[in-house]
Specification:
Layout: H1 7-13, H2 17-27, H3 29-32, H4 38-43, H5 51-76, H6 88-95, H7 103-131, H8 142-155, H9 162-187, H10 199-208, H11 212-219, H12 226-231, H13 233-236, H14 238-265, H15 275-278, H16 285-316, H17 338-355, H18 358-364, H19 367-386, H20 391-413, H21 416-446, E1 450-452, H22 457-465, E2 471-479, E3 487-489, H23 490-498, E4 503-514, E5 521-529, E6 533-540, H24 548-561, H25 572-575, E7 583-592, H26 600-613, H27 619-622, E8 630-637
Parallel strand pairs: 2-4, 2-7, 4-6, 7-8
Antiparallel strand pairs: 1-3, 5-6
Helix pairs in contact: 2-9, 2-14, 5-10, 5-14, 6-7, 6-19, 7-8, 7-16, 7-17, 7-18, 7-19, 7-21, 8-16, 8-17, 9-14, 9-16, 10-11, 11-20, 18-21, 19-20, 21-26
Length: about 650
């Protein structure tokens, strides 16, 4: 039982023009739209606009792209892959067996802030693009147009984006060429802008400007898409991303320099317009706005798809409740989570209505993703240690990037009251939900009592042979939640033996193991009692959606083909016609009652767990079971065994 990669995915990993083109469309939408608002944000910091300021800001942009995106993510992070997959959760999956049990906190902090950033990105990119229309007609209704585009983006998710996704690469190639050509053309009007490559100007600006914190907060927006670049490693492959980045970085820098040149030629009016659209010839303005809107849509699509993928991974890592996942197309990895799509849509709409224009949104943008990058740095440090990298290199790497990202974090915190609180609030809520979910599952597992399965082989065999017990099903399937090998959940035994003894021809125990690798899908089967009791262990990668019914069918077909089991019905009328027996799944669902524990903190945690669980789906659906064949047996989750003994009152007869 293995899942093979689609040929199209393999094609995307192959280095060539097609692979590079697809990479442009999938990976660089977020970072590729940053020229729409970065320079505008710098001009709105309140710093005096002059050559020193612009050269210093551009130097900060160039070296931020070099240090953050090129060195940290392209040169280091892309090599920290989990069987070809990237992203903070894939990185955590490689490390979760480390002795440092608290390391999961880094993962859920990073994931929650990354998801929060995914809500602000569609709002700011689409709004900024549509605001370009104001240079043509100042009275155009920007907000309604933006909301209309956002609505369409989220509405089409349910149908999948396979058809339009194929054109994203071509579109983004044209977009980046537009950025580079227009930037290069503008540079010719002020060639001295090329001095910005010298880091001296960045150092001077940061050491002398009283607004350096605000400037750094704006500069950081140029690299917010770097984390998405790492997350998309599995879609395109390291070599394609690395080669594509050389082209993308060159085009971005040319555009930033071109905007800087225009600003220095129009110092008096620069702060009142968006330099991105100002460097465009008037005859190309409509085309530029259309391209900017399209690029914003590509970036939004990438963030939405990335959010679905992150939450899908979080479900298998037990960070998030199981939710209904749809596969709108046959493309491997393309997901659609209706509840999350609706929640994101509402969030984006509220942000647009709250902040009204992109200038105000810039204050909310960047703070959350800074925290994600810092968490990735810490996890990369642990990863490098597992690979035997020299300690001195690890210390230098972590020290340098903790300082760099710490400074960026402090700079972005200066925007907290102006709008940063919004994404931090969203990220905080998501973190709380993940934290509660992780700890509640630990509590549930801790209080699951188990028993040695081999002690009950004979009893189960006797139940099968006892014809005085009505047959419950031909094949009875249980999901065994015991973590220890050879052990079984005691409530499972109670269900078979004590609670309406269940006679069956075959008993199947399913053990689910979620692997640290992304695409693992395999099983092992052990015959515990010949022709009676079987144990199947399914190992499922953290990117694979569990479909236990489907997997069990494949396992059974393998066993029947190898003549290890006879599934023909024991009813003579059915057996002589070769008809197989029926299957019935039993799910043991533990219900937590607050009165079972005296621990108030634990009660609060489990109450929040139950509340969060309402956004998810029940266990049969979460495991991909055919619900028509499932029986759910509810049992209490016992936390404390109270020792209060009730006394018997014995009435004595009076002696006559």
């Amino acid at each position: 039982m293995r899942e093979n990669s689609e040929s199209s995915v393999a094609c995307h990993h192959r280095v060539g023009f097609l692979g590079l083109l697809v990479t442009l469309g999938i990976v660089f939408g977020d970072i590729g739209t940053s020229p729409l608002y970065v320079m505008k944000a710098i001009l709105h910091t309140g710093e005096t606009i002059n050559e020193s300021t612009i050269l210093g800001a551009l130097s900060c942009i160039i070296w931020t792209l070099t240090l953050q995106t090129t060195i940290k993510y392209v040169c280091v992070a892309l090599r920290a892959d989990n069987n070809g997959e990237g992203g903070i959760l894939a990185l955590y999956a490689l490390l979760r067996k480390m002795k440092r049990k608290w390391i999961y906190l880094l993962a859920i902090i990073g994931a929650s802030t990354l998801l929060a950033d995914g809500i602000i990105t569609p709002a700011i990119t689409v709004t900024t693009a549509i605001e370009g229309l104001e240079s043509i007609s100042p009275h155009l209704p920007v907000i309604p147009i933006t909301l209309g585009i956002i609505t369409i983006i989220f509405f089409v998710q349910r149908f999948g984006t396979e058809s339009i996704g194929k054109s994203f690469g071509v579109f983004m190639l044209i977009w980046f060429l537009l950025l580079g050509v227009m930037g290069a053309f503008s540079i010719t009007s002020y060639p001295l802008i090329l001095k910005a490559f010298n880091p001296y100007y960045a150092i001077v600006l940061l050491s002398q400007s009283p607004e350096w914190f605000l400037i750094l907060g704006a500069v950081f927006l140029c690299t917010t898409g770097a984390e998405a670049l790492y997350s998309d490693l599995g879609h395109c492959g390291r070599k394609n991303i690395t080669i594509s980045w050389l082209f993308v970085k060159a085009m971005l820098i040319l555009n930033y320099l071109g905007q800087g040149a225009w600003v220095l030629n129009h110092i008096q009016t620069a702060s009142s317009v968006n330099p991105f659209f100002s460097i465009m010839p008037q005859s190309m303005l409509i085309f530029a706005i259309i391209m900017a809107t399209g690029a914003a849509i590509v970036a939004s699509q990438a963030l939405i798809s990335g959010t679905f993928s992150i939450l899908s991974e979080a479900m298998n890592l037990h960070f998030w409740p199981r939710m209904r996942i749809k596969h709108p197309t046959h493309v491997k990895g393309q997901l659609y989570i209706p509840v999350i799509n609706l929640a994101m849509y509402i969030g984006v709409v509220l942000i647009i209505l709250l902040f009204r224009d992109s200038s105000h949104m810039e204050a909310a943008y960047g703070l959350a993703i800074t925290i994600t990058m810092l968490m990735t740095t810490l996890l990369l440090g642990f990863y490098l240690r597992t690979k035997g990298v020299a300690r001195i290199f690890i210390l230098l790497f972590m020290g340098a990037y903790c300082v760099i990202e710490g400074i960026f974090l402090a700079a972005n915190l200066s925007k907290f009251l102006a709008g940063g609180w919004c994404t931090m609030l969203i990220g905080g809520i998501l973190f709380l939900m993940m934290y509660v979910w992780v700890h509640a599952i630990k509590i549930r597992r801790h209080y699951i009592s188990t028993k040695p399965l081999d002690d009950y082989y004979q009893i189960i065999s006797n139940i099968k042979a006892d014809e005085s017990i009505p047959k419950y099903a031909s094949n009875l399937v249980y999901v065994n939640h015991a973590d220890k090998e050879g052990a079984v959940d005691d409530k499972l035994l109670y269900s078979i033996i004590n609670k309406q003894p269940k006679r069956a021809d075959h008993y199947w125990l399913i053990n689910l193991e979620f692997a640290d690798t992304p695409d693992t899908l395999e099983y092992s089967c052990e015959t515990l009692v010949p022709d009676t009791l079987y144990s199947i262990t399914m190992r499922i990668g953290f990117r694979i959606e569990p479909r236990v019914s489907l997997y069990l069918r494949q396992v059974i077909e393998d066993l029947v083909a190898s003549r290890k089991v006879d599934l023909r019905s024991t009813y003579p009328s059915l057996r002589k016609n070769g008809i197989s027996g029926d299957f019935r799944f039993i799910i043991i669902h533990r219900v937590y009652y607050p009165e079972s524990s005296d621990n108030r903190q634990q009660n609060l945690l489990m109450s929040l767990y139950a509340l969060i669980g309402k956004i998810g789906i029940d266990e049969p659906k979460a495991l991909g079971l055919d619900t028509s064949m499932v029986v759910v047996e509810r049992v209490p989750l016992i936390i404390n065994q109270h020792n209060d003994n009730i006394k018997r009152i014995v009435q004595m007869e009076e002696e006559k």
